[in-house]
Amino acid sequence: xxxxxxxxxxxxxxxxxxxxxxxxxxxxxxxxxxxxxxxxxxxxxxxxxxxxxxxxxxxxxxxxxxxxxxxxxxxxxxxxxxxxxxxxxxxxxxxxxxxxxxxxxxxxxxxxxxxxxxxxxxxxxxxxxxxxxxxxxxxxxxxxxxxxxxxxxxxxxxxxxxxxxxxxxxxxxxxxxxxxxxxxxxxxxxxxxxxxxxxxxxxxxxxxxxxxxxxxxxxxxxxxxxxxxxxxxxxxxxxxxxxxxxxxxxxxxxxxxxxxxxxxxxxxxxxxxxxxxxxxxxxxxxxxxxxxxxxxxxxxxxxxxxxxxxxxxxxxxxxxxxxxxxxxxxxxxxxxxxxxxxxxxxxxxxxxxxxxxxxxxxxxxxxxxxxxxxxxxxxxxxxxxxxxxxxxxxxxxxxxxxxxxxxxxxxxxxxxxxxxxxxxxxxxxxxxxxxxxxxxxxxxxxxxxxxxxxxxxxxxxxxxxxxxxxxxxxxxxxxxxxxxxxxxxxxxxxxxxxxxxxxxxxxxxxxxxxxxxxxxxxxxxxxxxxxxxxxxxxxxxxxxxxxxxxx
Length: 551
Hints:
By secondary structure, the protein is an alpha+beta fold. The chain has helices spanning 15-26, 44-48, 59-63, 70-81, 89-103, 105-112, 147-164, 231-237, 260-267, 325-332, 346-352, 362-365, 369-373, 382-390, 400-409, 418-430, 440-448, 452-457, 532-550, and strands spanning 2-11, 31-35, 52-54, 141-143, 168-172, 174-182, 185-194, 209-222, 250-251, 272-273, 278-286, 296-301, 306-309, 339-345, 353-355, 394-397, 473-485, 488-489, 496-498, 504-510. Helix 1 packs parallel to helix 19 (532-550). The mean pLDDT is 96.
């Protein structure tokens, strides 16, 4: 049994945990970080991310002619969140606080830490409903120069400095199994020391126990992430409003994102709320070079691909690529099938397909200007082209009949109606003959190109899918991809975990995805994207500063 004492214990070494630690280290406090995975996985899910951050009225937006405001952002956030529960009291307050942070201090704080941004702002979750409904009214998805690793970099530097100064004890392969309580307060953690493992970042590691440990501190901060790698738990929490859970899903996060600490925190008295609010993508493709079990990658699509369900029927308005993630998921669960299709052209894939993840964007991650220049040159980005050539979910053909035949080969027998696919493609193509149209997606494509950033690198010039000059034709088979928990440990604005009676639990804090990115669910039912990393940054900072003030 190992035992030590520090001012604070942080459970989980992802972004939220590192931000929390940075606040404590900067204040000269002693910190112990316990993390069940090997050192190779330091930084958690943030390392794998595309590095998108939600900012409001930024210099990047203004340079592109985007007129944003705190009032517009609040309208979009609350129209998407649709808070409707008694337990949404703290999530509402967190949403208000986060919006203020995103509109004011967030960018300047990150800039002071050395974080820089790609100049073109992305437009995610476009909505497509009314002004007070779901979606971003304007582009707000700011990509960090360096993607996920670029977000982590300043906090890893602070961590390294803290270790060098003797302020930080870093304990990898230490799995927390219990929160230690005494007289109603959380005073430490107990757990198992796992055998050393040289597993690569994100790969599954051994669960063999070789020892146990116990640690005490004045504060314990749970920053252990969500449940996306635990499909059993995802299905157990799946809400009726989204239909039945898929029989098969891809994983957008490693298997160790298993939700263990949520139940452990609940056993210590913490209140878990909004567990049925979750964020899974419908544009998942099987990774041809997997790192973890059922490893999937999300396509970050532009608006031009024709989206068909498993039978070949076009998805209804406004469920176009990049418009409403959960609305699309809800609709697809009514079809009776676990997959859907994008039908597109080489011209569309070259300009509109990005793949989520730092490893799929070497130009931005490695800050490689030579590679970056290829985004505006002919040809698809290298990682996208690799998936098209090697991925099991792609079909490529010179003609529509040949494409349909390849799609049917990738489908269960008798599911894909080739005549329906042909009708949808031809119907859409007829609408391209005029500058005006009744097709809402065609109007959306043309509207998107009014934004300079989309016209430059994100949205292809409108064209017929059967235009030979735009070919070949491409179909991508899409799967549900697990990703984020929108609920979690209920916390007040100091990050203190709340009990079932609405009282703060002395000594226990939570941040990041484990706390629904703040309060137990500051996103409500839907996210505006670029808000997951930002939620880790903000909730980790809030908890860290609160613990410093309490010590």
